[in-house]
């Protein structure tokens, strides 16, 4: 065998496992058992019943299966992997131990605590011989044949294993062969002669009476034949009486001395025979048969001469009485055996009844215990439910109180918000505004737009920028109120600060930002406004992204700027950007869709009148009339392209796409911003194009996608970042 599985079998083939305590071998009866409990159960029972107080050891030879079942078929161990063979051998070993434990359980139920001894070999007969030799086994009980071959007249061994063991076992081993619970043969002839009536089986073996009758037929005939000499008759009678005495002795019967001599005449004397019959278990009652009618024949009487006719008549009478006594003994033995069987059956039934009663008592106790535990758990569960209901009621009360308190706080917050909105900015008189601008001196004008003119001034010792509504302005009171409403409630480092207003003239007073607008630096308005470096441009893009995220995250409603462009982005002395001009900003409301389970519904504003600068406006707005926060994302994308390329807003997207198709990203970067890092410049271009996507749903989220890209460029920018 070359496979791993066969190597494992060969490695363990000569290995024996012993679980027998250190007892003397002569005090132990070893019972060879099969791997199927039903095949050797009766042999174990017989051995225990006839053990005579000796120890019992279950002996087994484990033969590994040459073929292993796998996937509906059987395969040689050489065809399988080592792991598969080891797993199957492990299961075989477990099954063997379960079988041996079953035999031990049978012994335990019969009041005997047995041990076990086993070996693994390819041949059962060789395994038994190996164990006999290795452990010097002197008493062995094994099967003579399968139970199906048993019959009343069975006297020979039919099992090849039994024949092999009988021939190969050492002479010192006393072997008793059993079939279906009956003794069939004893291998040790000396031991067979001493075993007595208590060892032979009830059925299937030849009775003592039959043995005597069969052995004495020839002698009787010879006695009755008158054709031999007187001396030969005397010698024949002498030997026959010796044979009877020997037969009775082997049956545990005691016959008084027979005295015979060729020189003396024969005369009968009273013969006393006592026969003690002991059943197979060696522990039942003793039956004494007394044949007082026979006179003992002394051996010296045989020396007296007697006529042959007298001798024949006396011997016939003795034989008749002996045969009658043996028949009665056999009948008594059979009666004792039947009584023993009935008693054992009654004892077994009693033990089974007691066991069932004990099992029922145990089950009742367990059931009562379980019932008590269930009742206790049910009681605890009811208490917990009661406590939980009380807690729920208490929580509901607290919840109601909390809701009432929340409503009260919301009212207070609403009132405080109204009060705060009035306190976040000052109310200036028109006279103060005139004085601050030196009566609107033209040299102090720093800007002009659709809303009106912007003047620089000093108001209450603070340098400010004053935006005055023009009489011909396209914007009116609604834009003024919208800007006041938004800027009076919001504060952010990158949002312009509203200092005060004049309600009468619709004048707005802001903080003064000396570096003008982002548009001035992108187009290099004059020599005093140099171009911005690429680092400053990345920082400004990050600041604007932060401001837009702040507006879009406002609670309870998002705020959309609606007019994001370079002219509305102002720069302070440190070139920190400030988002201004909230006149057309919108407070967005959520879409009312009860059929949708989406809690993150889109916030939007529907209008039929477009406001803003065309080059920066969301193209999807013209198709749907809806303004969302993604409209600001589109404007931010256009603005980001302007920061990177330095080109004008009109047509910038198509121009950049054309440049990308040419494969020269460096040619798209604004050279006035300095030496752009190519990788970062390319990332900004692709990010801006995503923001400018025609499909609103394809545009990235400012708070996640856009901010993550800009945040990754933080290390390249030396200047200070203003974060959210």
Write the layout of secondary structure elements.
Elements: H1 4-12, E1 16-19, E2 28-32, H2 37-49, E3 55-62, E4 67-70, E5 73-76, H3 82-109, E6 115-120, H4 124-135, E7 139-143, H5 160-168, E8 174-179, E9 182-186, H6 189-195, H7 208-224, H8 230-250, E10 253-255, E11 273-277, E12 287-290, H9 308-423, E13 426-427, H10 430-436, E14 445-448, E15 452-459, E16 462-469, H11 477-487, E17 498-502, E18 507-511, H12 518-522, H13 534-552, E19 559-560, E20 569-571, E21 577-579, E22 586-587, E23 589-590, E24 603-606, H14 619-624, E25 626-628, H15 629-645, H16 652-662, H17 678-691, H18 702-712
Parallel strand pairs: 2-3, 2-7, 3-6, 7-8, 13-17
Antiparallel strand pairs: 1-6, 4-5, 8-9, 10-11, 11-12, 14-15, 15-16, 16-18, 17-18, 19-22, 20-21, 23-24, 24-25
Helix pairs in contact: 1-3, 2-3, 4-5, 7-8, 7-9, 13-15, 13-18, 15-17
Helix tally?
A: 18
Return the structural class.
Answer: alpha+beta
Q: What sort of overall outline do the alpha carbons produce when their principal axes are compared?
A: elongated
Whole-number total of structural domains:
4
If strands are numbered along the chain, what order do they take across the biggest sheet?
A: 1-6-3-2-7-8-9
- The average pLDDT value, as a whole number, equals 77
Helix content: 40-55%
Question: What is the count of β-strands?
Answer: 25
N-to-C span:
79 Å
Radius of gyration: 60 Å
Strand content: 15-25%
Main sheet properties: 7 strands, mixed
Uncertain spans: 1-23, 189-308, 591-601, 719-724
């Amino acid at each position: 065998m070359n496979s791993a599985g066969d190597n494992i079998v060969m490695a363990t083939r000569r290995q024996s496992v012993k679980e027998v305590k250190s007892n003397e071998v002569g005090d132990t009866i070893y019972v060879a058992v099969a791997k199927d409990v039903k095949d050797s159960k009766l042999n174990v029972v017989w051995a225990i019943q006839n053990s005579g107080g000796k120890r019992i050891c279950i002996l087994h030879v484990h033969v590994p299966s040459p073929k292993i079942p796998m996937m509906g078929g059987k395969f040689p161990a050489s065809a399988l992997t080592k792991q598969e063979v080891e797993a199957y051998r492990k299961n075989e070993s477990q099954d063997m131990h379960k079988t041996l434990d079953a035999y031990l359980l049978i012994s335990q139920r019969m009041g005997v605590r047995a041990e076990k001894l086993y070996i693994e070999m390819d041949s059962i007969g060789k395994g038994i011989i190996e164990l006999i030799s290795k452990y010097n086994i002197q008493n062995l009980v094994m099967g003579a044949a399968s139970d199906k071959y048993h019959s009343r007249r069975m006297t020979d061994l039919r099992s090849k294993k039994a024949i092999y063991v009988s021939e190969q076992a050492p002479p010192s081993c006393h072997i008793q062969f059993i079939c279906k619970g009956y003794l069939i043969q004893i291998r040790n002839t000396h031991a067979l002669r001493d075993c007595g009536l208590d060892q032979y089986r009830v059925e299937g073996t030849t009775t003592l009476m039959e043995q005597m009758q069969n052995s004495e037929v020839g002698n009787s005939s010879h006695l009755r034949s008158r054709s031999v000499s007187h001396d030969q008759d005397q010698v024949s009678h002498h030997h026959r009486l010796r044979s009877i005495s020997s037969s009775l002795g082997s049956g545990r019967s005691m016959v008084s001395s027979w005295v015979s001599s060729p020189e003396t005449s024969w005369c009968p004397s009273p013969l006393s025979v006592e026969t003690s019959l002991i059943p197979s278990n060696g522990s039942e009652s003793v039956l004494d048969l007394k044949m007082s009618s026979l006179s003992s024949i002394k051996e010296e009487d045989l020396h007296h001469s007697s006529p042959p006719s007298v001798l024949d008549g006396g011997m016939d009478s003795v034989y008749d009485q002996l045969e009658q006594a043996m028949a009665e003994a056999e009948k008594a033995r059979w009666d004792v055996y039947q009584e023993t069987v009935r008693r054992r059956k009654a004892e077994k039934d009693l033990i089974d009844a007691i066991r069932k009663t004990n099992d029922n008592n145990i089950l009742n106790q367990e059931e009562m215990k379980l019932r008590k535990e269930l009742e206790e758990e049910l009681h605890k569960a009811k208490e917990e439910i009661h406590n939980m209901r009380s807690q729920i009621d208490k929580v509901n009360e607290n919840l109601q109180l909390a809701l009432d308190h929340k409503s009260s706080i919301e009212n207070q917050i609403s009132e405080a918000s109204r009060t705060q909105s009035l306190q976040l900015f000052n109310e200036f008189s028109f006279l103060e505004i005139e004085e601050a601008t030196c009566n609107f001196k033209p040299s102090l004008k720093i800007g002009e737009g659709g809303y009106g003119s912007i003047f620089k001034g000093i108001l209450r010792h603070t340098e400010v920028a004053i935006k005055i509504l023009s009489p011909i302005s396209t914007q009116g009171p609604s834009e003024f109120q919208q800007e006041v409403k938004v800027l009076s409630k919001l504060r952010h480092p990158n949002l312009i600060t509203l200092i005060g207003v004049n309600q009468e003239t619709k004048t707005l007073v802001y903080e003064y930002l000396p570096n003008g607008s982002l548009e001035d630096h992108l187009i290099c308005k004059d020599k005093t406004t140099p171009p911005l470096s690429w680092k400053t441009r990345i920082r400004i893009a990050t600041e604007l992204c932060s401001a837009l995220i702040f507006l879009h995250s406002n609670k309870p409603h998002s705020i959309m700027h609606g007019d994001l462009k370079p002219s509305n982005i102002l720069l302070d002395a440190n070139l920190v950007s400030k988002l201004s001009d909230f006149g057309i900003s919108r407070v967005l409301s959520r879409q009312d869709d009860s059929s949708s389970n989406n809690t993150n519904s889109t916030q939007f504003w529907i209008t039929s009148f477009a406001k803003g600068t065309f080059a920066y406006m969301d193209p999807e707005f013209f198709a749907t009339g809806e303004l969302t926060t993604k409209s600001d994302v589109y404007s931010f994308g256009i603005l980001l392209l302007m920061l990177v390329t330095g080109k004008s807003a009109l047509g910038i997207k198509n121009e950049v796409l054309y440049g990308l198709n040419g494969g020269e990203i460096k040619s798209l970067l604004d050279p006035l911003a300095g030496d752009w890092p190519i990788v970062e410049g390319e990332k900004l271009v692709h990010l801006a194009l995503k923001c400018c996507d025609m499909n609103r749903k394809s545009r990235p989220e400012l708070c996640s996608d856009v901010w993550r890209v800009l945040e990754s460029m933080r290390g390249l920018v030396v200047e200070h970042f203003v974060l959210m």
